[in-house]
């Protein structure tokens, strides 16, 4: 009895399976494509697109600091106006935009950090790429050494630089103070902290720059250098006339990715110096919604951050299109 | 004395003379100087961690330059696990990394198959929409997600499940954020498999999905490995959601971020343990980089350059 029962259930199950398979096999290409994309789109819809739209909607509502509801009444773009004019600054842990204290206000801190870290990462990354482009023994291991900082977790990167500049233990603090570069407590001085964060970021992410620029270098046609040499160009001239223009597109792509990354800076700050000393935009988002429960303001800051990144992305894309057509 | 400086000067000027004759030699020397400089700057911070970890904590005072361990105390590497349950934090990080990688590989394989091998209306815009996700800062997602995962969002009177302090509150955002890169990598790999191989499998009686998972995916093993390694490293390194989606206790699925920070927060003077914990935490990814170096390089450059 039992066996026949199971046999029947088995055939029923496989019957359903067979018909599902047949249904799937008979779908047209577009139908099948959308069927396969459904799980991805569901996940991205719930975890990415819905939160983005929801953040934008929140940013149009006032903060509700007394009641149990998260948001107050609808205020349109008032949060954005209040943030950009500095009216909201008094309520925030650190001001959003205050040109008189550029190392204390979120927007200027983020821009200063992004500008300097991306600049130095490009220079260092380019130099590293030129080293890795050479043929020499042990090249594989030099490449490993250069990539490893990229793979170090942000929290450990932060811990390393915290330990390097902690006044009681660091061997760097005393000499740097004697030379008049840093103060006695660099981790609580906003300017010193900014420099430390930029150095930490350059240390970790130059490798990413280097790898992308290296890929660009290796796609340069080697015979161009022979032509250059025959024409009597020096190494420097070869670099300037052949390497640089051909590698520029990949440099721009690498800079784009690093700019996006630098403008999000949060974890490194949290570990090395804390958001009070160097308040980036992401820091401000977190402190206003976790500490003060100012959801409207926090959402507006988050959306301004996203908008700023979007702006930078489009500038790079225009530049990139220029180099492609210009070449 | 005089003869010594004479001879060294002689050697130096001889080198300069030969260098003027063959500039190649100068470039070579410059190259080695620059290479050693980069080796020093990338590896020195790890050496500093080692110095701090091996020095007994009471002997940690201002170090001179170059810093050398002030004593020898390998016990720090044991105390790391007894002072806070650092192994549990690491285990949590591994679970989160492996779970996210599994989810991403399955879903990104489906999407990679679609974008790499099928033609359908709306393909280009849809791909752009998915890639656009990775441009947004995590800060632009966090507030609604935080409220969703703490049960503060209700739909039709049913409030969302409380996922805060569970792996789901991290695996879901990680998957969404790191999936676009994997979809991109896999679609280029899947697109390169000749149609004939898929057709042959289909004639043998495999279903379309069967052909994807039994023929296309195994043939694209290097691509799958690349996407997997990059996803795992990204999760292991992630800070933002790891930090904000748990309360920080090891038994609440808090990952390595909290393991390291708990030393900074609770044991503010135990610098040797902070350094030892950092070394232990770096080891898994360092090993992964040594083993999977080629995959990482090809994945990163493909992801960045072909877009």
Key structural traits:
heterodimer; A: 327 residues; mainly alpha; MetI-like fold; 2 domains; two-stranded antiparallel ribbon; 72% helix; disordered N terminus; B: 307 residues; 14 helices
How would a textbook summarize the main sheet of chain A?
2 strands, antiparallel
The CATH architecture classification of the largest domain in chain B is Orthogonal Bundle
What series of H and E elements makes up the topology of chain B?
HHHHHHEEHHHHHHHH
**Radius of gyration of chain A (Å):** 27 Å
CATH topology of the largest domain in chain B: MetI-like fold
Q: State the helical fraction of chain A.
A: over 70%
CATH class placement of the largest domain in chain A: Mainly Alpha
Structural class of chain B: mainly alpha
Residue-averaged pLDDT of chain A, rounded? 87
Fourth CATH level, the homologous superfamily of the largest domain in chain B: MetI-like
Task: Write a structural description.
The complex is a heterodimer of chains A (327) and B (307). In chain A, strand 1 (61-63) and strand 2 form a beta hairpin. In chain A, helix 4 (106-132) crosses helix 12 (281-291) and helix 6 (154-165) packs across helix 8. Chain A contains 13 helices and 2 strands. A two-stranded antiparallel sheet of chain A has the order 1-2. Chain A is globular, with a radius of gyration of 27 Å. Chain A has 2 domains: 2-42; 86-326, MetI-like (MetI-like fold), CATH 1.10.3720. Chain A is an all-alpha fold and 327 residues long. Chain B has 307 residues and is mainly α. Chain B folds into 2 domains: 2-73, no CATH class; 77-305, MetI-like fold. Chain B is 73% helix and 1% strand. Chain B contains 14 helices and 2 strands. Chain B has a two-stranded antiparallel ribbon with strand order 1-2. In chain B, a hairpin with a 2-residue loop joins strand 1 and strand 2 (158-159). Chains A and B meet through helix 1, helix 2, helix 4, helix 5 and helix 6 of A and helix 2, helix 4, helix 5, helix 6 and helix 7 of B.
